Amino acid sequence: MKLIYSISIILSILLYLPSNSTAQEKPTDGDLPPAVLGTASSLRGESVNYFSEDPKTAGYIVAPDTEGKKPALIIVHEWYGLKLRIKEMADALADEGYVVLAVDMYSGKTGSNNAENRTLMTESLSDPDYIIRNLDAAASYLRGRDDVITDKIGTMGWCYGGGVALSYGIGGEHHEATAIFYGRLIDDPEKLKHIGHEVLGIFGENDGGIPPSDVRKFEKALRKAGIENEIHIYDDVGHGFFLWIDKRPEGKSAATDAWKRLKDYLKRTLGD
User: Cystine design at 192: which of 5, 220, 225, 265 (Cβ 3.0–4.6 Å)?
Assistant: First the structure.
């Protein structure tokens, strides 16, 4: 099944700046990983060419230090491409016990400003079949590793990557989890019914591109399609509040709660 995107909606999401008000959600137990605070240490993973169709594609793979087979995660970058912050996030998720592959959807390219990011994203979205093949190759690569539990693979992403993760849940190879951080939504139950697992959705109340009304339509459509879901809209934060707390400290409380919910969700869907 092909991905269905509205580029105008995605652009409005990615260009939106969050408000400066303080989130009302109180943090629960557990601290945010250094990756989202801008204090991460040196990377410990390595580059990998997991997609033989496109030799320019270079993902980032990192595994826990412990022995034995682990569940795995495919994580999808924001509109600027596979940059340092996403790799740091891969390390943080490996610390939680997952083999993590941060995929490259832009054939090795990254953007350094809004114009470059927009061009890269538009080019990517113009070929939805390529996106599916890329992520199918990522899943196949993980299943081929000796340290991965082959029936415990999830996908997650932020912004552009959140929308990609949702659409991959609908149209890609079977996998066991989809976590969406303020990504483009689909509210057609007939499409959503192809998802075969619980979905986690994290959103901000002040997101100019994905207003709460759209999130509720998505939630209603998931229920109509019979898909288990956990959807959260955090007060007083906007789009992009999670990954960049060093630049958007007003989102720290909401991000702390979202991080705990993500960890709980992954244990539910990918745990033993």
Answer: 225
